[in-house]
Every structure is written in C-alpha cells, then in structure tokens.
Specification:
Beta-Lactamase; Helix Hairpins; Heat Shock Protein 90; 3 domains; five-stranded antiparallel sheet; 8 helices; 51% helix; binds adenosine-5'-triphosphate; binds magnesium ion
Length: 446
C-alpha cells in the first residue's frame, strides 16, 4: 500500500511545485513590470540627451526589496549606460526588442539566477530618436521561498487526506472481508467427508450467489457419494445370498464326497466362499458406515457398558482359541457421544484383529479423563512394526501372513472413529511387545 502511494505522492509533489511556481512567477513578474514602467516614467530627453530623474525616495521605493536584490539599467539609443548596473544579463535572442515592446526573461547575474524585465522606451516625439532600454532585474529568493511554502500548503493537506482515506479504506475492506475469512475458517475446519451445505446466515449478500452455487455443488456431490455407497451396499447385499448358497452346497457335497481329491477341492471351495462372504460382509459394513455420514445421530452412551457387552459377545470365541479377554476400567462409567451399533462394530474389528494376529491375552481398557474417553484393545502378539502402522489403515492393505482377511477391518475402524470425531492410533505396549490400538473420543459437550 505504502510502496504504491510513494510514487503517487512524489508525482503530486512535482505537480504542486511546478503549478505554484508558475502562478507565483506570474505575480512577481507583474510587480517587476510595474517597477520597470515606473522607472521608464522617470526617463526624459533634454536637448537630445537621455537623462533620468530619480530622487532618493523614488529610488528606494522602486529599486529596493527586503529579501531580493534588485538591480536596474537604462541605456540610451547610442548604447551608453545612463544609469545603473553595467553588468546586466543580456537580452534573449539576437534581434533585441522593438520600441514599445516589453519582455521578461531569465538570466544569470554574478552566478545567481535572476529574472529581468526589459522595456524599449520609444523616444519618438522628443528631441532624440530611437529607443532607450530600461531594465529591472531581481534575484529569486522570495519567489522560491513562496513557491516552497505554496507547495507545502497544497501537498500536506492532500497527504493527510490521502492517508486518512487509505486508512479508512483499509479498515473498511478489512471489516468487509471479515465474514469471508470467518467463512474460510469454517470451511477449513471441516471434516473430509462433511458435504453439508455452507450456512448462509451472517454472510454478505454479495457472496450469496457464489455460496448458493457451492451449496448446490455440495448437494450434487453428496448425492453422488450416497448413490455410490448405496450401489456398493446393494452389490454386496446381492452377492451375499449366492455366496451363502455356494457355501452351503459345497459343505453338503463335502459331507458326502468319497473321493479324496474331490474332498480336498470341496474343502477349498468351502473355505474360499467363506472368505468371499466375509469380504462381502465387510464391504457392506463399510458402505453402511459411509452412508451413515449424513444421517448419523450421536447419542450419549456409557462407554463402559458398550465395551463390556462386546467383550461378553467375544468371550466364547476367544476361549475356543485359548485366548483370555481381560477387562480393565478405572471408572464406573465413561460417557461418549456415539452410535451404539457403529461403536460395537468398531470394537469388534479391533478384538477380531487381536484374536487373529495377537498372542494369548487381550486386554480391554476404558479410561476417562478431562480430555475425553479412551478405549484400548491391547494384545501380546507380535505387534505391527512402526513403519507399517500408518499403512494398515488403507483399504485392502494387509501385512504378509497366512491368516485370511479382507484388509478392511482397520479401514472400518478408522471411518467409524472419524464419524465420532475420535482418533485411532496403533502403538506397541509399554514393554515393547504386542499391539495397543487406542480410540480417543473427544470430550462430550457439557
Ligand atoms: N493386533 C494386531 N497384531 C498384529 N498385526 C495386526 C493386528 N491388527 C492388524 N494387524 C495387521 O494389519 C493388517 C490390516 O488389518 P485389518 O483389520 O485392516 O485387515 P484384516 O484383519 O487383514 O482383514 P479384515 O479385518 O478385513 O478381515 C492385518 O492384515 C494384519 O497384518
Ligand atoms: Mg481385521
């Protein structure tokens, strides 16, 4: 802003300076001309000789100034100096001036710039012929001092006005843009999947058409996303029945297969269809989670109760594998805002992983603090090496291992946590073994 104003200001200064110099020159020239005419009035011709009658009082009046040095000269038609200065800046041009003519010109005298008025006084009608040249000059200190003062008188109020206007504009623009920056903050704070319309209240009217367009775009986008997850859900749903059918047939055939090769093949088919069924089931859940994005209603739930229920559900399966499920809780209750079904699904996936890839013990912990509630699922298995921990959340990403799985479990966990504003992290336990998966919920609103 300032760098833009500086050249403008210099230009203004230059224009003001030249303008005031021009008008002040005009005024001063007029007074110089008056003095010249007054001096010419004093010229007389006596018996063909040019003379000057200049009493002291008249001389003082005509040829004295407090600040500037005034000087004059009168020469007769024979170019003899009758009165005044010998050293006078020469007339401009070669032709000189015609009788009766008056000119004002710039010159230099004793190294100083001066302004000179010259008048050719015609001697016609007297006893002499030709013209006497009357010149009066002055130095320029009063003019330039006045010009400087006039320039300041123009520039300073203008500068003040410009600065005030600039400050007012900056303030106005800042205030005008305030709703825009508020809007930007609100948009940048949005969650990745949040396609809800931008609220219009409090936004400037000029932005409304633009925001309406954005909202209609968001609307179309959200419809497209919904349609896509509905399609995945439908496809998964459609696949479930035939897969279950194949599996049932394979198992029935397996029971009656006598040939060893056929038995083997049917066992593989039964196993593959089970894997396929699991994959389809996971896809269905994932699609449901995505679809829940816009319709989700969070309720106040007791986290301790939810975790206890899921642990109870999984206990028989764990027992069958020789794994012990422990439940640790410091608080009698730990409230979270959530959807009970989705939270159970999330926890089930973490327990499923601990059971499949972990060791002999699973510990579930619920802890509540001022920063919110944290759920933990810890196992004493091999864990996940640090560099892999971020990657396992990606869909279909699995670490090498014989156990079957779709690679969607942690993706589902993360999406559900995200829907709840919670953060999932994977760590090694304090003694460096096993895996600890934690879900950190935000504190519920008071
Ligand atoms: N508790 C754990 N200990 C060791 N490795 C784990 C643990 N949990 C997950 N992993 C690793 O992370 C990978 C991704 O897990 P994720 O739950 O996303 O998929 P999955 O278990 O392979 O398949 P799905 O859960 O869809 O049936 C797993 O394949 C496994 O290698
Ligand atoms: Mg899993």
């Amino acid at each position: 802003m300032l760098s833009m104003m500086l050249p403008l200001f210099i230009l203004l200064w230059v224009i003001a300076h030249f303008a005031s110099q021009y008008f002040i020159n005009e005024a001063f020239d007029r007074s110089l001309v008056r003095r010249t005419y007054a001096l010419a009035d004093r010229v007389e011709v006596l018996r063909g000789e040019v003379q000057v009658d200049l009493p002291i009082a008249a001389r003082e009046l005509l040829l004295f100034d407090q600040e500037d040095l005034l000087f004059h000269r009168i020469i007769d038609p024979q170019a003899r100096v009758i009165e005044g200065e010998l050293n006078m800046p020469p007339l401009p041009g070669k032709k000189g001036i015609k009788p009766g003519q008056l000119i004002v010109y710039d010159g230099v005298k004793d190294g100083e710039k001066v302004r000179v008025a010259a008048f050719a006084l015609s001697l016609k009608g007297s006893s002499a012929t030709g013209a006497a040249l009357v010149q009066v000059g002055e130095t320029l200190s009063r003019r330039s001092a006045m010009a400087d003062r006039a320039t300041l008188a123009i520039v300073i109020p203008m500068l003040l006005m410009t600065l005030t206007a600039a400050a007012a504009i900056a303030y106005g623009v800042g205030r005008g843009l305030e709703p825009v920056s508020r809007l930007r903050d609100r948009l940048s704070a949005r969650q990745a999947f949040d396609l809800s319309p931008v609220p219009l209240e409090g936004t400037p009217a000029e932005l409304r058409p633009f925001l309406n367009e954005i909202n209609s775009l968001l609307q179309r986008l959200s419809e497209a996303v919904d349609a896509q997850s509905r399609f995945v859900a439908d496809a998964a749903h459609q696949l479930r029945t035939p897969i279950a059918g194949i599996r049932a047939q394979a198992e029935a055939a397996l029971a009656s297969a006598r040939h060893e090769n056929a038995h083997h093949a049917l066992a593989r088919i039964a196993q593959s269809t089970q894997t396929m069924g699991d994959l389809v089931q996971k896809l269905l859940i994932l699609a449901r989670v995505d679809a829940a994005e816009n319709t989700l209603r969070l309720n106040r739930l007791d986290g301790v109760e939810v975790v206890r229920e899921v642990a109870r559900e999984w206990a028989p399966r764990a027992l069958a594998k020789g794994v012990e499920i422990g439940f640790e809780m410091k608080d009698a209750e730990a409230w979270v805002m959530g959807d009970a079904q989705l939270l159970r699904e999330m926890l089930a996936n973490l327990i499923d992983n601990a059971l499949r890839y972990g060791g002999t013990r699973i510990t579930l912990t619920v802890r509540s603090s001022g920063q919110g509630v944290t759920w933990r699922v810890a196992d004493n298995g091999p864990g996940i090496p640090e560099p892999q921990r971020a990657a396992v959340f990606a869909p279909f990403h699995r670490l090498s291992g014989g156990v079957d799985g779709a690679g969607l479990g942690l993706t589902i966990v993360q999406r559900i946590a995200h829907l709840h504003g919670a953060v999932v992290s994977l760590e090694a336990s304090a003694d460096g073994t096993g895996l600890v998966a934690s879900v950190k919920f935000p504190p519920p609103p008071v």
